[in-house]
Amino acid sequence: MLKRFPLIIGCLAFALTACQPQDKYIAISGYAQGGTYTVKLNLNGSHGRIHTSPMQIKASIDSIFQMIDTTLSGYNKGSMISRFNRGETIVPNTMFKDIYSEAYRFWKESDGLLDVASGKLFDLWGFGFTKDSLPSDQMILETLKVIGMKRLQQEIVPDLQGRFSAENLIVQGQKTSAELPILNYNAIAQGYSCDQIATYLYSLGVKDMLVEVGEIFCDGVNPNGQGWSIGVDRPEDGNNQPGKDIQAIWQSDGKPHGVVTSGNYRKFYIKDGQKYSHTIDPKTGYPVNHNLLSATIIADDSMTADAYATYCMVLGLEKAQEFIESQEGIEGYLVYGDGEEMKEWASSGFLLKEMN
Question: How far apart are CA 234 and CA 212, in angstroms?
């Protein structure tokens, strides 16, 4: 189920656009997390007309994004996570503690393949918060010794004054190294953001919604009274514009779902003729090298879909298929290379819509 986290709502400047469908649907858009977001919702909610104005909804959504940015963004040098990663003592808020707890759970479930404490490894390859790339084998080996959730406690527990630091998070037996953990939530942050916005909309009584922040959460129906249709981008290098070249379309059944695609066709670089993708195996320390091009996961919430889509990209085709089929409440769609051809696989419950 969608995880509902506490929200802090404020008032910020807004820009609002509205569609003109039957019923009372509106579309709200803006800028967040280095890109844009779009929220579509029906003002005729589950308990009648939503009385909060579109302008107020827009301001509240922007406030949520502002809180996420100042708490979890590694690109914001003044954010809580940036200060934590520098070794500073912070007073962690509920959001900071909750997402760490969820990340630890994903680490346990994935047998260490989803590891938000591998931030230094991503930095090493140039896919984190730095631009370094092509590390030596020795650098990778040394980095593997000092990273990972294996060094860290399961929960963030501040002192009596509410303070906490990265040094406090290291388990006693792992303090032989002076290296502090660097947390990087890129694998789940956008999915988490979708869930935060959806939680707020539910609090207003909204039933029909589509939240798109790079990743997607949807519930209910679209203005035509049908389940939401969501395109899966064709995973070809250079396809950097979402929706421009569609591989398939997923059709919602009107229930709440997180919808996330992870792939290696947008975030990569080529050096000396070799392609290096942003999907890194935290156990080996190297980018993955297999024929799985993209993984789309449907789950009850976007953060879970986000995490599992990344997990599948680390696993590769066959193991990803086994994982998806073994999980209750999870559906998946995998696109993979077979020689010069691009092929697809979908789980039995993944609702593909016929493309015209």
Answer: 18
Instruction: Report the C-alpha gap between 38 and 18 in whole angstroms.
Output: 11
240 burial via Cβ count (<10 Å: 0-12, 13-18, 19+): exposed
Question: Phi then psi for 246, rounded to 5 degrees?
Answer: -95, 130
**245, pLDDT greater than 70:** no
Chain centre to alpha carbon of residue 328: 20
Q: What is the pTM for the complete model shown?
A: 0.87
Sign of CA dihedral 50, 56, 61, 64: negative
When the pLDDT of each residue in the chain is averaged and rounded to a whole number, the result is 86
What confidence tens digit (pLDDT) does each residue in 263-315 have? 865 454 445 555 545 688 999 988 888 889 899 999 999 999 999 999 999 99
Q: Which two tokens stand for residue 163?
A: 């303070």
Nearest to 194 by CA among 210, 207, 170, 208: 210
**Residue 200 belongs to what H/E stretch?**
helix 189-204
- Beta partners for 219? 209
Sign of CA dihedral 210, 213, 215, 217: negative
Q: Confidence band (pLDDT; 50, 70, 90) for 126?
A: confident
Three-class secondary structure of residue 212 per DSSP = strand
The DSSP code for 26 is E
Q: What is the number of other CB atoms lying within 10 angstroms of the CB of residue 256? A: 19
Phi and psi at residue 313, to the nearest 5°? -65, -30
* Helices and strands: H and E segment counts in the chain: 9, 15
Across 137-157, average pLDDT: 92
